[in-house]
User: What shape does this take?
Amino acid sequence: MSSLIPTVEHQHPDFFVVHKPAGVHFHSQDGSPGLVAQLEGQLGESLYPVHRLDTPTSGLVVLARSSAAAAKLTERFTQHQVEKRYLALSGHKPKKKQGTVKGGMAKARRGAWKLTPERDNFALTQFVSHSLRPGIRAFLLRPRSGRTHQIRVALKSLGAPILGDALYGGQEADRTYLHAWSLGFEWQGEWQQFWLPPCQGERWGEELAALLAQWQAEDPSWPQS
Assistant: This one.
């Protein structure tokens, strides 16, 4: 696996957009500094998280540089005004190739979550998928809510748990293949768009680059919710 050191991908007077490697905790725990603490040490300033990624997930994270910026950015995330794109790989064929997964989210066993038919803690995820090579399917996902383990639960419900995601029944791999590929939001009257292809993990494969170029150039016709 590549280095577990977070890196700054974009610097703005009000925020940093950073790359969180898979395996890095968001918050400090077990005596080890988390993503925020590591970056504060690297950059020499206080940072304010406005959203988070699970430990096994890699990709883009926004960290505010002031409490005022944090309040405004947090509002954008909580009001679902941020366009998020995730990538995932699965070793299983899904029940449907594209569509929408929606339902309530409830705690299950061993720290996992599950979908329910209720409206409580409602989650909605749109997705399209493409066969990357025999036995591996790539997913492009757009979560329209921000629930814990939302994408991981959505893919399990499709019969296609994420490769390497042991908690949800994914096949064994060198990492959990879930990556926060893109973030977009309005800031001070201008649209900010950031992209970060995955670089950590043996199973993404060379075929992914062409697919990402296609998905980026031709934004998919997302299934209606």
User: Anything to note?
Assistant: The domain at 7-217 is CATH 3.30.2350.10 (Pseudouridine synthase). The first strand starts at residue 7 and ends at 11. Residues 67-78 form the longest helix (12 residues). Helices lie at 35-43, 67-78, 150-157, 207-217.
